[in-house]
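Record format v2
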Amino acid sequence: MMDSNKFGMILAATVFVVGVAACSSVPKPNAEIAAAKTSLDIAAQAGASADAGAVFAQARDLLQSAEASVEQEEFAKAKRLAEMAKAKAEQAQAEAELARTEASAAEIESSLSSLREALRN
Amino acid sequence: MKGKKSRISSLLFIAAAALSAAACSTTPPVNQKYVDAEDAFQSMQNIPGVEQAAGGQVTEARTSFDRARAAWQGGADKEQVDYLADLAQSKAETASAVAKRRLLQDQIDTSGAERSRLLIASKEREAIKADAQRRNTERANASLKAEAAAAKQVAARANLRARALADQMRELKARETDRGMVITLDGVLFESGSATLKSGANRKIERIAELLNAEQAARALIEGFTDSSGSERANLELSQRRAESVRQSLIRQGIAPNRISTRGLGEAFPVASNDDAVGRQQNRRVEIVLSEKQSDMTRRR
């Protein structure tokens, strides 16, 4: 049977190593931040700030928080924030494109119904 | 020594038991974000044809939702479940939006094709209408042209008649007066002291007859005059006979007798001085007054 002191020390050492590893085994999330930035740019070009304003603003705020977390060397947090920022940016882009397509559809349906009306007479 | 060891191991045992109990529980605590993610995921799946329309995004959403579910059922801490649920919800919304857009785009393409078809049909209709209008206009123009041509002919004929009339008036040396048109036959057309018309008067008589034929409403008053040589009574009688002679000539030209009246005025109303031969010759004349109004003609000057 191990003597309790030795056991305690091994336990503490393990916890310490695991704890440190938890902080430093997550690398600086450069790829995730870059990916989030790209998605945000694409969303902006798709007119997301106008047509999907709320979601686009969330994405932008998340990216800012991710970058702030990087500065504070909280890399795990930064990675998650960046991933969420990317997801929100893609959502904003998809919703903006949908909004514009809906506008086109409405316009076509309207002109179609006028044409049908005109030809009926 | 023995107490410490047993206390640590008991604590470890309790901790392990608690952990395993949590891992095996069948009802994890309610997490609103997880519920929202579930709803979003369900909505996505309910879109007909969503897999075909947004396959990649649907797969990503499904993977993300599976992770969220595993964390929630596995009793992971709230922060972790919240994060995974948020992520899953966002991806489900994205997949829904992409699918809806593509399905709508298909509809737009179909509608667009029909719109093109209808535009062509509408333009054809317009072309047919325009053509019909054009033909109507052409027809209207043609008939207007015909009317104008006819009117021109009528005007031309009237013009010719007016010119012919003017020519005749000039030839006859006719004068317009308040009594009507007055044509003078001078005395040279009669033998001296005679009421017989010389042949030189024929053309004038013919012209006057033409005028009377052209204007059926017109009437003629023939007045005879002499110079002052000789007796008043003889002159009166001669002038009457000469007027009558002209009347007969006109009747021979086919003018109805009731349209022609005569009177002899003798020496009255000379137009020149009777003191010289030229003046006397001018006074020896017959005047024919043409008018539609009998009353005007017989009015004395």
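Chain B touches chain A through 29 residues (CB under 8 Å).
Chain B has nine helices and five strands.
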